[in-house]
C-alpha cells in the first residue's frame, strides 16, 4: 500500500504542488461508485495530516461513505480555480488523486473517516510557453512521468 507520506518522500516537490492545488479552497470533489456501478459525485473536505496521511470524512450515514464501504475505489479532484479573464494562460492548473479508501474508527458523532491509499496522482497545468498543457502523473510502481499535449 502507498500513502501520501510515500509520495512526499519520493517526490517532495510534486507532492507540494499537488497539495497546494487542493489547498486553494476548503471543498473539493470526490467520485465514488454506487451500488449499481454508476458514479456518484460529492463535495468533500480533504485533510493532508501532519502524520503523512491523506484523509476525508463525511457525516454519519452519508451515501458517499456507504459507497466507500462497499467499494473503496475513489477519485478526488481539487477545488477549481479559473484563470483571470485577461490572461487565460495564467490558469493555475488542477490536481487529481485516485486511490482506495480505508475506513478508520468513527468519530463520537458517528461520522465516517477514511484514509486514502494512493494509486495515481495527476497534476495538469499550462506549459511555458503557454501553447500546450503539461501533465505530470505519479504511480506507485512507475514513479513520476511528465508529458506535454
TrEMBL record:
Ranges for domain Pyridoxamine 5'-phosphate oxidase N-terminal come to 17-106
Bias-annotated ranges (Basic and acidic residues): 100-113, 129-143
Its keywords, alphabetically, are: Oxidoreductase
Q: Where is this region: Disordered?
A: 78-113, 129-149
GO annotation, cellular component aspect: cytosol
Check the record and name the InterPro entries matching this protein: F420H2_bilvrd_red/Heme_oxyg, Pyridox_Oxase_N, Split_barrel_FMN-bd
**In which domain of life is the source organism classified?**
Bacteria
Name this protein carries in UniProt? Pyridoxamine 5'-phosphate oxidase
Q: Which organism is it from?
A: Micromonospora chaiyaphumensis
Amino acid at each position: 500500500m502507498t500513502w501520501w507520506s510515500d509520495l512526499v518522500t519520493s517526490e517532495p516537490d510534486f507532492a507540494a504542488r499537488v497539495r497546494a492545488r487542493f489547498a486553494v479552497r476548503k471543498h473539493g470533489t470526490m467520485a465514488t461508485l454506487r451500488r449499481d456501478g454508476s458514479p456518484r459525485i460529492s463535495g468533500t473536505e480533504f485533510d493532508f495530516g501532519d502524520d503523512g496521511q491523506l484523509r476525508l470524512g463525511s457525516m454519519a450515514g452519508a451515501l458517499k461513505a456507504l459507497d466507500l464501504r462497499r467499494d473503496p475505489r475513489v477519485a478526488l479532484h481539487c477545488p477549481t480555480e479559473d484563470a483571470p479573464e485577461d490572461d487565460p494562460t495564467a490558469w493555475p492548473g488542477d490536481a487529481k488523486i485516485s486511490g482506495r479508501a480505508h475506513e478508520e474508527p468513527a468519530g463520537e458523532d458517528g461520522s465516517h473517516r477514511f484514509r486514502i491509499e494512493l494509486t495515481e496522482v495527476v497534476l495538469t497545468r499550462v506549459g511555458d510557453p503557454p501553447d500546450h498543457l503539461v501533465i505530470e502523473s505519479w504511480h506507485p510502481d512507475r514513479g513520476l512521468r511528465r508529458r506535454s499535449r
